[in-house]
Specification:
Elements lengths: L1 H14 L4 H8 L3 H9 L6 H11 L27 H28 L1
Helix pairs in contact: 2-3, 4-5
């Protein structure tokens, strides 16, 4: 399960065109920490994993799913070298979008 999570983390990071260095800055870590995490040499805190998942546009429990079943909100970013502020904004927008999606699912179930 840890291996799936690490693979998904790396795939999603690459999908949104974020370098290890950018992710490290976003999570307030060293770039080597991201590299070692992705290679299985180091762990990452749950709070940092949650922050990364918000940036990816997925819920924390989704990062443990088989990548075939993984659905992320985030499109690939066209711009490289996004600022930390831009990454924070993207993460906040993704959280709002995920909440709206959850509310719509609940309403659909309720209204049948």
């Amino acid at each position: 399960m840890e291996e799936i999570m690490r693979e998904n983390f790396k795939k999603l990071r690459k999908k949104i065109n974020i370098t290890q260095e950018q992710m490290a800055k976003y999570l307030n870590l060293e770039q080597s920490s991201i590299s070692k995490f992705e290679s299985g040499e180091r762990t990452i805190s749950v709070s940092n994993l949650e922050r990364a998942c918000s940036l990816f546009g997925i819920h924390l429990n989704d990062i443990y799913k088989d990548s075939k079943n993984l659905r992320a909100l985030s499109p690939s970013f066209r711009k490289t070298n996004l600022s930390l502020s831009s990454l924070e904004d993207i993460s906040n927008i993704n959280r709002i979008a995920m909440n709206i999606s959850e509310m719509n699912t609940i309403l659909e179930r309720h209204n049948g």
